[in-house]
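As promised in the previous annual report, we have extended the structural survey to additional targets. Below is the entry for Succinate dehydrogenase, cytochrome b558 subunit.
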Amino acid sequence: MSGNREFYFRRLHSLLGVIPVGIFLIQHLVVNQFAARGAEAFNNAAHFMDSLPFRYALEIFIIFLPLIYHAVYGVYIAFTAKNNAGQYSYMRNWLFVMQRVTGIITLIFVSWHLWETRIAAQLGAEVNFDMMANILSSPFMLGFYIVGVISTIFHFSNGLWSFAVTWGITVTPRSQKISTYVTLIIFVALSYVGLKAILAFV
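The corresponding structure token record, generated without further manual editing, is:
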């Protein structure tokens, strides 16, 4: 019975990592990309997101609750998984280890980012281009954001591989190998978008 529960918990964890958390990540990257067009374009995009109807309900039920479940259960998986990359040093096993490592980094980064932006906004700060430019004016914070964004994107992109396996989309070794390269291409493409947005604030 407990094995069945864990099976469903893992499937839910995988699903929520893609829908809706992964979709929110892509949407967030798209909004941040407006920074490359200047402060006004970014502020308009951010204001549009803030003015969505039922914003708080969307944030709670579509973002925060799925994110909390995915994060908490993900920490459990990270600290109970048997990493064997040292024994079987081929690419898939190293990606398995990196998925766990970037999951922890992502949790730290996202928690800090929410503190600096969303919670700060509730305390009266305005989330705009100048706020992000001020945060990223520190070389330490710039490095922290670069590592955090790259880790988050990798965790999502590589997580797509696990999602496809978990949900029976890629069953054969060949399909799983193709999926590995597809998800790595997604990682590179989204990393370009994320880094371009970060550097636009500098």
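Residues 1-201 form a domain with the 3 helical TM bundles of succinate and fumarate reductases fold (CATH 1.20.1300.10). Residues 91-122 form the longest helix (32 residues). These points will be discussed at the next consortium meeting with the crystallography subgroup.
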